[in-house]
Design a protein that fits this description.
The protein is of the alpha+beta class. Helix content is 25%, strand content 34%. The longest helix has 17 residues.
């Protein structure tokens, strides 16, 4: 499916990712969140976490999940972003959102999240979109709040000791649930 993009941008193509996309998706996600390359964008977690954000097995698990999909977003034939959608009863879960660092800050994220909300609503008839964000990421939470998400005050602990999700550089990390009503959009 195609959708419009911010002024001055080429059109975006949204498609379901395949297992063959896993290496490129891992590279995209890592570039947006970990290491020095992630500092080119504003979504970096490099000061909070070292190590990996995900791996090919984790990405393939999302691609192959029966109740979900991983959307690959392309511009001019190249992978520029991705996001996970998972059907969870009356809600959809939004996760694994990554935009190439050099493409961040120009409105692309707004277009992608709006398309993800539309896709979840039309595919599953859900009323809400849920996501979890590291609570220390105030700038990112504020960005989601400007998109209509609200903080719930519901926290789950960060999986300390499980290096599949990174090596924490702080001892106060937790995930906060953010929720948005998407049925009337």
């Amino acid at each position: 499916m195609d959708t419009a993009t911010p002024p001055g941008s080429a059109r975006l193509t949204f498609r379901d990712a395949t297992d063959a996309d896993a290496p490129a998706l891992v590279a995209l996600i890592e570039s947006a969140y970990r290491g020095d390359s992630s500092r080119a964008g504003w979504t970096t977690e490099a000061d909070l976490l070292e190590g990996q954000r995900t791996d090919e097995d984790g990405v393939r698990a999302v691609i192959d999940a029966p109740a979900g999909r991983l959307l690959a977003v392309e511009r001019d034939g190249g992978l520029i972003a991705c996001c996970q959608l998972e059907h969870r009863g009356d809600a959809a879960y939004f996760g694994m959102f990554a935009v190439r660092p050099a493409a961040q800050g120009g409105g692309l994220g707004k277009v992608i999240i709006a398309e993800a909300e539309r896709t979840a609503r039309e595919s599953w008839g859900v009323a809400e979109m849920h996501m979890t964000v590291i609570s220390a990421r105030e700038d990112l939470i504020a960005w989601y709040e400007r998109r209509g998400y609200r903080r719930t005050g519901q926290f789950t602990p960060f999986p300390y000791g499980d290096e599949r999700f990174g090596i924490p550089q702080r001892d106060d990390l937790a995930f906060e649930l953010l929720v948005k009503n998407i049925e009337a959009l």
